[in-house]
Amino acid sequence: MRIAWLPRAGRSLLVLIVVSALTCQLAALLPGDPAFVILGDESTEAQREALRHTLGLDQNAFVRFVNFMGGVVTGDWGTSFASGRPVLVEILSRVPATAELVILSQVVALAVAVPLALHSARNVGGKLDRLVSTGTFLLLAVPSFVVGIITIQFFAVQLGWLPASGYTAFVDDPLENISHMVLPVLTLGLAEGAVYVRALRGSAIEALRSPYAYASIVRGASDPQLLWWRILRPSSSTLLALIGVSLGVALGGTLLVESLFAIPGLGRLTVSSLGVRDLPMIQGVVLFAATTVVIFGILADIAVSRIDPRSKHGLV
Amino acid sequence: MNTNAILEVRDLTTTVLRHGTERTVVEGVTFSLTRGRSLGIVGESGAGKSMLIRSILGVHPPGVTLRVTGSVTLDGHDMLALRGRERRRALATSVGMIHQDPLRSLNPTIRVGDQLTETLAFAGTATRRERSRRGIELMRSVGFRSAESESRRYPHELSGGQRQRIGIGAAALTEPALLIGDEPTTALDVTVQKRVLDLLHDTRLRTGSSMLLVTHDLGVAAERCDEIIVMRNGRIVEAGHTSEVIEAPQHPYTRSLLDSIPRLDGPRLRRLRTPQEGALS
């Protein structure tokens, strides 16, 4: 098991390098000239040429890639065209809002999904199971921004209980921060939760069909004991892998939900950078997102090996 | 009515209700098991043996609804009437069950020592320390020499025979009035089978339990049980003392089961022909 981490780490590094190489091609692929966007249409060709040179856009993609990687290694991710500030500083300043949103929504998703999945698996085809199946299908079928718009309409506009959008840092005003977080967290959490319910319910049904579940029932396990002490653990490998993927992807920025609720996180940074062809910024957020995906993939693998002893021997 | 019966089953009929269809899998089964004795339930797969056990215990297969009628009295409990906590307590204290597949009947994510004593954990009647002590003690009694370290292993780290010894230890934990073996040796090597059956026998003597041994192997039942019932298509076709059933089978089905046991002194059967080389490719 220890040995297997080396190739795993190597593959992860390769993924990050490939992602970086691809984003360095963006300058050639994106329509529109960044120099034109920055200077406006009243600029002269000479001015634009000079700007392209200072931005390094006149060099070929390979040179830009080498320069970019050199910078990444030394902690210099480049300078934003749009704000003139270092890319890494901009990214790190956006992390708290996204991280708070993502972590809280995962907590909500799991708190809702795990009990529902386990108890509907125990009574397949029962009232709860049918309700949960319909509900999760509905949530999966409807895009999260539609759910978001509906929650805004209901809780913010009609009831006026919560703000419709915006963000206040927790350190500035904890109460205000929470009230701004409720709706986006619900929107994101329900969407994630629906996926988790379906994954865990399936594995739990399989585990409940196993002879060891029968054995535990004959030994006098109540439903909660059976489900929480004996079924949850062997059923959670798929769920853990899914959590790893969602966390990794979402920490790179939740584009729709952040845009909908005007949360100044990485997702909004990505969208606004794309809008103004801020190439260094785009490269930075893409590399950051790829890194979170890779890291949480590895963390999920570790979690699975901890929770299911068979996986250490490649038996699962 | 047998007043000294540990298990009394009367006119038990079980119907599987599924997708609006009904299928009767156990029909009009009546038998009783006297305290301290052993009963073999023999029949081919699909004869209704496992469903009979599930009906007695009231543990339905997942996703399936059973309609069970008749009466089951187990160690004084009216099993068909008990619900919830009372039923769980009756199961935990009166029944010890050994399952068919020793690997799949152990939870892959729980250390074997903890599974051995899980009955106590579910009942909440013993502290973690007591359970661990009891688990190690039981593992010694079923032949684990270094029980202390072996109790911390996971099922996949044990051999098939070791796993089934864990199963027997777990069944004996509460010294139950009734041990149920549901094909306990079917998944094991022939050499391991005998040792497991011997251990089951020793355990039964130690705990004073009665035994219900479900098997498709009439030979095993004849060797280990005082009485035998033969099931086919959900019904009992033959019942009696082992010697009567073996020596003077009444039903043609029993005779065919007896004939299917290979014997050293029986007529020599012709070997199946081996395909010619190359004929399969």
Question: How far apart are the first and last residues' alpha carbons of chain B, in Å?
Answer: 64 Å
CATH evolutionary superfamily of chain B: P-loop containing nucleotide triphosphate hydrolases
Tell me which CATH architecture of one domain in chain A applies here: Orthogonal Bundle
- Which CATH class of chain B applies here? Alpha Beta
Distance between the termini of chain A: 14 Å
CA-based gyration radius of chain A: 24 Å
The two chains with the largest interface, and their residue counts, are:
A-B, 30 and 31 residues
| Assembly state (oligomeric) | heterodimer
> SSE string of chain A, helix = H, strand = E?
HHHHHHHHHHHHHHH
Q: What are the low-pLDDT stretches of chain A, counting only 5+ consecutive residues below 50?
A: none
**Rg of chain B, alpha carbons:** 20 Å
Strand arrangement, major sheet of chain B: 6-7-8-3-9-10
Average pLDDT taken over every residue of chain B: 88
The profile of the biggest β sheet of chain A is: none
DSSP strand tally of chain B:
10
Strand content of chain A: under 5%
Q: Give the DSSP E fraction of chain B (strand runs of 2 or more residues).
A: 25-35%
- Stretches of chain B where pLDDT is under 50 for at least 5 consecutive residues are none
Structural class of chain B: alpha/beta
How is this structure best summarized?
Chain A: InterPro entries: BPD_transp_1_N (IPR045621), MetI-like (IPR000515), MetI-like_sf (IPR035906). Chain A: Residues 95-304 form the ABC transmembrane type-1 domain. The complex is a heterodimer of chains A (316) and B (281). With 316 residues, chain A is mainly α.
